[in-house]
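Researcher: Checking consistency across runs. Here is Wall-associated receptor kinase 2 again:
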Amino acid sequence: MAVAVPPPPSNASEFTKPGCQSRCGNLEIPYPFGIGLNCSRNSYFNINCNASFNPPKPYLLYPSRYDNYKFTYYEVVNISETQIYVKNSKEQQSMACYGKRFDNKTQNSTIYMNFLDSPYTLSDANQVTSIGCDDLAMVQQNPIKASSGGGCWSYCDFQNPFGFGSCPGIGCCWNSICKGDILIVELSDMHSYWRRGSKFFPCSFAFIGMIGDYDKFNFSLSHLSDSTTFLKTYNQEFMGMPFVLDWRIMDYNCTDAPNSTDYACGKNSYCIDMDTKLGGYHCRCKKGYEGNPYLGCNDINECEISNHCVSIGICTNTPGSYNCLCPNGYHGDGNKYGIGCIPVQLSHNKLAIELEKATDNFNQSRILGQGGQGTVYKGMLSEGKIVAIKKIQVN
């Protein structure tokens, strides 16, 4: 299954607190995330770099307030300006297997994720995928409101141990989820709903992951006969898929945040509200600035990169912007998308003075040629350009 994970930021040294480790393995770790003591904004943004792997792997250590502050380890795949891509095979998986009479579960696990009172929420870039025959994956995102959620049925219209399933299609379905703090996914047997005497296959599975190219995934229905075979065969197909968390700076919105003592936005940056319902904010560099907005943004010297000045224009860098000027002898705004630079038209008297100066008062040593209508002189303009100047003979 192909997924597009955004690339990490470049110039890592500008994105990490001074003196802090900027990379774990192949991943840049931008502030407010950080590796080590005093390198992140707070404990929620701590990244543990596990050097026992080659290359080392970064892990987000999430302390859940609702599970006695037990730490859950999520392997970090990528960090963007607003999202963090993580994976944890146990947290992402729900499973149900039934005994021979299909009236009791011999194996049962539920997806339960709780990010309440943390800077993380589940993104709507995720989906729940259910695999099985005659099974319902029930998605609940607010335990108080039973109606808040969704789900999908995975269905097989015949029992064929040599057949194949596909996503979405035979034995597989998927459904997107909403943004939220909590996610619960449970599997329920639905064979009686279809008026069948028994289930076709005893096991079913559900996974959460970012929306990807599931159309290319096929599996053998016979592998639904036991959990060990299925997970061993297809675990990488699904558990290699990260899920997406939206992250934010907590507690305030942009109306109140600038007045707080722990305002997160650095110099030359501004505040953006993340979500009016969930609260929190992000920081962005102002136009004309670049860098990490949580550490402070630096001026971009537009004169050293592409700009809108005409070729003869003079570029002058200013804080957050730049100006285009015209050289002597020209007027205009110097902008290739504006007036540009137009030669100044000299008055008759000024032109005569300029011509005398260029030819050293029409010195005979400057004569290039003579004719019936006048004399041609070699002249040098004020900017050093050599020209031929013809003085008309008036009878």
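Researcher: Does this match what you'd expect to see?
Model: One thing to look at in this run: Confidence is low (pLDDT under 50) at residues 1-12.
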